[in-house]
């Protein structure tokens, strides 16, 4: 594991954008699974700025959403809506290069990734409960590839989605499991802010346990963790 502690969120974002660009610049098909959310927001802004300044062959980059939460009466789920707004539209990614994961194809998705040459980079955040992708402590297993989790009104997952989206949650979530993520060539985990300091300590210095799902990422031979000083403040 390579640990990078940056002075601030801006530097974290610059390094994250550079890592994505270095993969993109390899002059071959590159398969990327990049997270949505607040942590990578600035990195994607930097990425869009740099892609406007330097030529990159857009056709070489293919994007895989590593989880999806269905929403009632919506064509796309929560993750695809966020990625479209935060990443795909600003970068001008064409539809043909977006390999959608959803409730209809999740059972074949591991096979599709393998046939496409495997994932070159997975960029993830970490939840306050230690989850990565959609691997929540209450239902994850380190033995899973891509899998489905039912969503029921009143359960914790339903409440979480209902609070974070203007749309009504659907009936299921699909997500990369640990086995799918660990099969990727390179993993990057990013976190910023003091609110992530305690779970980062547990994930990086505590036991590897399904109670803190992100702890399994330490077993990957090519994992880079990028933190600002606040997120790293409780590490030894």
TrEMBL record:
Transmembrane regions listed in the UniProt entry: none
Give the matching CDD domains: GlcN6P_deaminase
What SUPFAM superfamilies is this protein classified in?
NagB/RpiA/CoA transferase-like (SSF100950)
Q: Which PROSITE patterns match?
A: GLC_GALNAC_ISOMERASE
Keyword Transmembrane recorded = no
**GO terms classed as biological process:** carbohydrate metabolic process; N-acetylglucosamine metabolic process
What keyword terms does UniProt attach to this protein? Carbohydrate metabolism
* Keyword Ribonucleoprotein part of the UniProt annotation: no
Using the record's annotation, list all stretches that form the Glucosamine/galactosamine-6-phosphate isomerase domain: 22-218
Name of protein: Glucosamine/galactosamine-6-phosphate isomerase domain-containing protein
Query: What's the source species' lineage?
Result: Bacteria, Bacillati, Bacillota, Bacilli, Lactobacillales
């Amino acid at each position: 594991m390579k640990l990078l502690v940056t002075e601030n969120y801006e530097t974290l974002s610059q390094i994250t954008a550079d890592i994505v660009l270095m993969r993109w610049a390899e002059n071959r098909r590159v398969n990327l699974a990049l997270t949505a959310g607040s942590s990578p927001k600035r990195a994607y802004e930097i990425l869009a700025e740099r892609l406007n300044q330097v030529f990159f062959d857009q056709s070489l980059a293919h994007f895989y959403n590593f989880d999806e939460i269905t929403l009632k009466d919506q064509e796309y789920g929560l993750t695809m809506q966020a990625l479209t707004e935060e990443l795909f539209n600003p970068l001008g990614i064409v539809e043909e290069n977006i390999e959608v994961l959803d409730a209809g194809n999740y059972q074949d998705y591991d096979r599709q990734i393998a046939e496409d040459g495997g994932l070159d980079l997975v960029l993830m955040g970490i939840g306050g409960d230690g989850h990565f992708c959609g691997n929540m402590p209450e239902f994850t297993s380190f033995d899973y590839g891509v899998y489905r989790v039912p969503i029921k009104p009143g359960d914790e997952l339903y409440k979480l989605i209902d609070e974070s989206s203007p749309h009504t949650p659907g009936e299921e979530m699909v997500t990369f499991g640990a086995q799918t993520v660990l099969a990727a060539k390179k993993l990057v985990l990013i976190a910023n802010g003091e609110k992530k300091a305690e779970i980062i300590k547990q994930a990086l210095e505590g036991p590897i346990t399904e109670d803190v799902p992100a702890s399994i990422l330490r077993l990957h031979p090519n994992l880079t963790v990028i933190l600002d000083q606040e997120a790293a403040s409780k590490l030894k």
